[in-house]
Amino acid sequence: MVRQGRAGDADAASLASDSGMSALIVGPAFFNYNEAIGSALQKAGYRVRIVGSPVHNPSGLWNRVSIDFAGKFGIVAFRKAWRRRFNRLICSTDHDMRPDLMLVIKGDWLDPLVYEACTAARKVIWFQDAAYRCGPDHLRLAQLADAVFVFESTDIDYFAKAGIDRGKLRFLPMGYDDTVYKPLDMKREIDVSFVGKMYPQRKALLADLVRDLPGVRFEVWGRFVRYQEPRTWWEWVRVRSDARLRRIYRNRDIPPQRVNLLYNQSKIVLNMHHDQSRDGCNPRVFEIAGSGAFQICDDNGFVRTQVSDAIVQFQNYDDLIEKIEAYLRDDAGRERLSQASLSAMKAHTFAHRIDQMLSMVA
């Protein structure tokens, strides 16, 4: 059983196994990725404990005031105090377990001195983001790890140039949890859906699509309003003042199980990568395909050559419009391509990724 903590709070959870091997996961409490990876390690024969870290800053009103707001004025004492408490939890969990494997994901909140002192027989770090977005200590953590796995293959050269032993650097893309993202017998009543963080470029493209395709039923899920960005407050006022936009934009995140339901209700699921993606892809690629949905994503050579050429890609805005209109009329074409991409996902589950990882660090 897994004992869950609130997302963004330091908390330890455990997954049982009959094996004598143990693994400690330290990673951001984001869309249940820690738990999915923990389950994959459990299938590989490990007893697993998870220490979840904040995705950005710790949750809760007090933390928002004392860490987020105070930080804007150069007050960092509260952030440092929270980080010390978090690292003490890692120390105590490591001391209790003395794990065979310590898997750190991103490592934003991990103190390199604590990481160095941990007793794990093998220390592995998986940068599930571009390295430069993984905190100021990412190079030191990479030096201390026995093996380093990167989200973008171009980061191998980045780390090597920074003095990290190239022999312990490996490219390992994200995967997906096939117990969550899977086909369901549902009617596809939504024409086009999108789930993800509402970066400005994504907002702009979606706004153009909604304007230029008035007859298409859209659903867009993700936090539209960012409390630290007043501009987004006024944007949201404009959305709420329009009846159609109110139905389209849902200003909140939804859990993975709900995302899978949405994908299974959608004729087309859009996927747009962050600018960081140069030779890799986001996990939505695998999750959308794994749900059995038809996907259109932005131009991405890695997806085309290493994941599935059945995932349709668009080159520019006009091309995207044409493909949305064409595939909304082509039920058979969508079904054929979605089934082909679903078949390719057998090699991209988290269980498969963990098997790859363990074979590399054995």
Could you describe the 3D structure shown?
The structure is a single chain. The chain is an alpha/beta fold and 362 residues long. The chain folds into two domains: 11-172, Rossmann fold; 190-347, Rossmann fold, CATH 3.40.50. The protein is 43% helix and 18% strand. Helix 1 packs across helix 15 (350-361). The longest helix has 21 residues, at 77-97.
List the helices and strands and how they pair.
Layout: E1 11-15, E2 21-28, H1 33-43, E3 46-53, H2 61-71, H3 77-97, E4 101-105, H4 112-117, E5 122-127, H5 138-144, E6 147-150, H6 155-161, E7 169-171, E8 190-195, H7 200-212, E9 218-221, H8 230-240, H9 243-248, E10 249-250, H10 256-264, E11 266-271, H11 284-290, E12 295-298, H12 301-307, E13 312-314, H13 317-328, H14 331-344, H15 350-361
Parallel strand pairs: 2-3, 2-4, 4-5, 5-6, 6-7, 8-9, 8-11, 9-10, 11-12, 12-13
Antiparallel strand pairs: 1-3
Helix pairs in contact: 1-15
